[in-house]
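Example S7 (structure tokens).
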């Protein structure tokens, strides 16, 4: 890459007059492990200016594997990361067993963006222990063999080790994931394997992080990071949680406890006020997660429509929401009025798109729930409702959020790109954040947010010659209009293998996305170029460190 005045004819010229030219965005928490085989563009991340991703997070990778573990790993990925099982079964053809073979198979796909992979604890444990991986602690011999298996993956270029003991993580049969049965000794021993391999990192989500940490897990994170001699990142920092108003302070303290012991623990946080979409058709969040609605989703669509139109059924649904005890149902009920009508394929419903359901209810003299049910019936269930998850109605809420977003201990990201396909779409975090946090809320300057999305994650993972525009660095660039950059409205697309559906949005105002000097996206459309490369630790990364920020004007 050359920087400066033109020195000769170019094969392709991008006119960036009046636009921002910055390093390509780097997303270090994704789950594109399977999607890369049927969609090498890694959409929608690439549509939002991302040029480099790291997959294999949350202890879930697709290698090592053998014929006896394929169904388990596919079911695990589907259940934990909310990827339709039908899409995985139709889109995956296992042509590998070892981690090295998996990386080679990905390289043969010729991805459009750069992609590296962590070695997941679940696949590793299952490969050594079989079904017992989901039943008990490992023996001393099994732990020795696990560490050897991890070393083999790290030697092949795995970017590090990932694990998770989150209580919500279950396999395809509903059993807690294999790392749940690991002792602290096992987690620390496996993390320590990274010490022998330059350019590696550790990613781990402990069970208590979701509610503000217990002291024992502060120590576990610290000991894992210290044993590895590498940074350990976890996600995600929360701002609001029932009965724990200081949850973010407890979570951020994980970095302080580690620093006091000479280790590096990095909390990650979703930066934008992300959108959650629900419907009465296929979404796996919102209505489907409520006990009162569970039976409805067992019905065939035609029967479900009839049930939603039935006055007696509506009375029962109203009562279940109105008298719900404190918990998920009560929280969802309290948020119904925050939804807007986001999308529908039914022409007659197009005037409602973009309208708040509370506004429609006031106009029609109905309850919000009845308006949503009426729209679902009228649309044959083909209508979606979206709300923003983070409360920002008051100045105090916005101020607290801005303070945490700018906290030097935090790395912004945690998109889960490639996962949770029918409920959320956090892969739009980059474009959505420039719209929200730069233009509207003024939490960051353009330069600061570019730095947060490029150089900071690059330094965390020790990525070589990425994250900056500098002579000799890789030519990974994003070109965007600072006055227009944003995320488009969401819509449901049936473009997964087997005709399964996912939510999609596009990056608005993105003029060009360039990987390795080749334009992969031009004005919102893929060019067909696929110059990305599979990143390998020790070659494409050196040992990372704490979040590195530079002073910007």
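Recovered sequence:
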């Amino acid at each position: 890459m050359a920087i400066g005045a033109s020195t000769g004819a170019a094969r392709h010229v991008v006119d960036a007059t009046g636009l921002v030219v910055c390093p390509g965005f780097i997303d270090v928490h994704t789950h594109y492990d399977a999607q890369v085989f049927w969609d090498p563009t890694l959409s929608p991340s690439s549509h939002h200016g991302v040029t480099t991703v790291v997959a294999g997070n949350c202890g879930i990778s697709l290698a090592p594997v053998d014929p006896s573990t394929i169904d388990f790993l596919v079911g695990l990925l589907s259940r934990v990361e909310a990827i339709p099982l039908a899409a995985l079964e139709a889109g995956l053809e296992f042509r590998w067993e070892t981690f090295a073979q998996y990386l080679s198979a990905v390289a043969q796909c010729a991805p459009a963006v750069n992609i590296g992979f962590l070695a997941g604890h679940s696949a590793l444990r299952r490969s050594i222990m079989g079904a017992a991986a989901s039943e008990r602690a490992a023996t001393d011999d099994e732990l020795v063999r696990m560490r050897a298996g991890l070393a083999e993956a790290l030697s092949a270029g795995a970017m590090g080790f990932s694990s998770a003991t989150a209580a919500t993580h279950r396999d395809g049969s509903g059993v807690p994931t294999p790392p749940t049965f690991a002792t602290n000794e096992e987690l620390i021993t496996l993390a320590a394997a990274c010490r022998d391999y330059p350019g590696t990192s550790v990613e781990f989500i402990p069970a208590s992080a979701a509610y503000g940490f217990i002291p024992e897990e502060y120590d576990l994170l610290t000991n894992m990071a210290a044993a590895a001699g590498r940074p350990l990142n976890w996600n995600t920092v929360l701002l609001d949680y029932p009965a724990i108003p200081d949850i973010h302070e407890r979570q951020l303290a994980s970095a302080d406890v580690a620093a006091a012991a000479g280790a590096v623990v990095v909390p990650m946080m979703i930066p934008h006020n992300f959108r959650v979409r629900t419907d009465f058709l296929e979404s796996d969040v919102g209505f489907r997660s409520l006990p009162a609605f569970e039976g409805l989703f067992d019905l065939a669509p035609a029967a479900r429509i009839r049930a939603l139109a039935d006055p007696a059924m509506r009375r029962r649904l109203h009562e279940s929401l109105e008298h719900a005890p404190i918990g998920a149902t009560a929280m969802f009920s309290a948020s119904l009025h925050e939804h807007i009508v986001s999308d529908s394929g039914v022409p007659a419903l197009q005037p409602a798109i973009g309208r708040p359901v509370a506004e429609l209810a006031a106009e029609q003299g109905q309850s919000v729930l009845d308006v949503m049910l009426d729209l679902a019936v009228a649309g044959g269930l083909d209508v979606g409702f979206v709300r923003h998850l983070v409360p920002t109605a008051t100045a105090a809420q916005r101020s607290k959020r801005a303070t945490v977003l700018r906290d030097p201990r935090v790395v912004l990201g945690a998109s889960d790109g490639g996962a949770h396909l029918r409920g959320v779409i956090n892969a739009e975090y980059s474009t959505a954040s420039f719209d929200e946090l730069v233009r509207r809320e003024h939490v960051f300057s353009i330069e600061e947010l570019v730095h947060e999305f490029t150089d900071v994650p690059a330094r965390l993972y020790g990525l070589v010659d990425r994250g900056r525009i500098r002579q000799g660095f890789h030519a990974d660039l994003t070109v965007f209009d600072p006055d227009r950059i944003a995320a488009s409205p969401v819509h449901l697309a049936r473009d997964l293998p087997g005709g399964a559906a996912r939510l999609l949005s596009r990056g608005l105002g993105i003029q060009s996305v360039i990987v390795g000097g080749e334009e992969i996206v031009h004005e919102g459309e893929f060019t067909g170029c696929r110059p990305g490369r599979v990143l390998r630790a020790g070659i494409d990364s050196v040992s990372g460190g704490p979040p590195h920020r530079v002073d910007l004007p």
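Notes on this example. The longest strand covers residues 50-55.
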